[in-house]
Design goal:
With 388 residues, the protein is of the alpha+beta class. It has twelve helices and 13 strands.
């Protein structure tokens, strides 16, 4: 088999997955404090289990009363759709908050003063990626994995999909030829359901979402035997009652489905001074604008930072054709036209706003920018820089 001919698989998880419940709550906390102060510092982790939610982390921001924050947690759980014996937005689920003041040592490194620009909130490496496999310049397997679950959730929450509960997963395998996806070879969907539904009914309800989500041209050779819906045979107990959830455990789901490297840092629960989040966003922004400019079919960007230091330590660019002169030209254009300090990134992408709760499920990338200031890193308004 040629090196550019292969099978590749990506998975997604729904907003009702225990880890995604935690991501949603943590990002709600970030948004709550940013709505009080656009320069708030927030690092919030959430844990969920049977009828319990625990918040922990560090805050530097105007106070929000504990009861107000706890009610917002309940609102998140209600919107996701949980009202079950083992996990509910109602008082049977106990919520604890252990948020406290940010470390002065961390604050000292991040704060700007005199002639020192604001520093990165942590050391680390961040990656951005874009490719021309889909309209949104995302890898196809993760794009379609997200879409299936998102459409299921939308109909479930509208009351159009009865008996399907919030916790679900999807996984899509695609065949690539000459580096491009040509067909779907297998699909796995596991979805929580009410005890009133048997597995045949679950399959009947879920199967149409495959055809709604994936173009027919990619499905025409798919064997029905390679479509696995609830392959364990039953999925009634789910969500945090079935499995403990934690913030930041679905970082590959959040990014490119394994099609590109990941620096290892999670996004949810972090304000934009944390380059784990903001630098990953601007890396995607750069890569997407480069591909949108028609320079290359695929682009990978890596940025590296040191805590307390404003400028990136390194910028790495990898293009699909590996043209060294073109790569060097692109890198020079990035250095000349973009301020990649934490402050510069936040100003470029308008990140000091309560825009993060919506990012917590169905991917941080490949989404549509909107007039609320969400997903600014998905714009392709700088592609002309790279065309020149």
């Amino acid at each position: 088999m040629k090196i550019n001919n292969y099978l590749f698989t990506s998975e997604s998880v729904s907003e009702g997955h225990p880890d995604k419940v935690c991501d949603r709550i943590s990002d709600m906390v970030v948004d709550s404090y940013l709505s009080k102060d656009p320069y708030a510092r927030v690092a919030c982790e959430t844990l969920t289990t049977t009828n319990k939610v625990i918040l922990a982390g560090e805050i530097r921001a105007p106070e929000i009363k504990n009861e107000e924050l706890i009610q917002k947690v309940r609102d998140c759980i209600k919107d996701i759709g949980y009202d079950q014996d083992g996990f509910s937005w109602k008082p049977q689920t106990k919520i604890e908050s252990h948020l406290h003041s940010q470390s002065s040592d961390i604050a000292m490194g991040v704060d700007s003063k005199e002639n020192k620009d604001e520093g990165a909130g942590d050391q680390g490496i961040m990656f951005g990626y874009a490719c021309n496999e889909t309209e949104d310049l995302m890898p196809a397997p993760i794009h379609f994995s997200h879409k299936i679950l998102r459409l299921i959730a939308e109909d479930r929450k509208k009351g159009l999909l009865k008996g399907i509960e919030p916790d679900s997963k999807s996984q899509i395998t695609m065949q690539y030829k000459d580096g491009m996806p040509t067909k779907v070879t297998s699909i796995v969907i596991s979805t929580q359901h009410s005890k009133d539904l048997n597995q045949e009914k679950v399959k009947e309800l879920i199967y149409p979402y495959i055809k709604k989500s994936i173009p027919e041209s990619l499905l025409k050779e798919l064997n029905d035997k390679e479509v696995y819906i609830n392959p364990t045979g039953q999925f009634i107990i789910g969500g945090p009652d079935g499995d403990t959830g934690l913030t930041g455990r679905k970082i590959i789901v959040d990014t490119y489905g394994g099609a590109a490297p990941h620096g290892g840092g999670a996004f949810s629960g972090k304000d934009p001074t944390k380059v784990d989040r903001s630098a990953a966003y601007v890396s995607r922004y750069l890569a997407k604008n480069i591909v949108a400019a028609g320079v290359t079919d695929k682009c990978l960007i890596q940025l590296a930072y040191a805590i307390g230091v404003s400028k990136p330590l390194s910028i790495y660019v990898k293009l699909a054709d590996k043209d060294l002169d073109k790569t060097e030209d692109i890198k020079n254009k990035i250095e000349k036209n973009f301020d990649l300090s934490p402050r510069g990134i936040r100003e470029l992408l308008s990140l000091n706003k309560p825009i993060y709760e919506i990012t917590s499920a169905y991917g941080h990338f490949g989404r549509k920018p909107n007039d609320k200031g969400q997903f600014t890193w998905e714009k392709t308004d700088k592609s002309e820089i790279f065309k020149k």
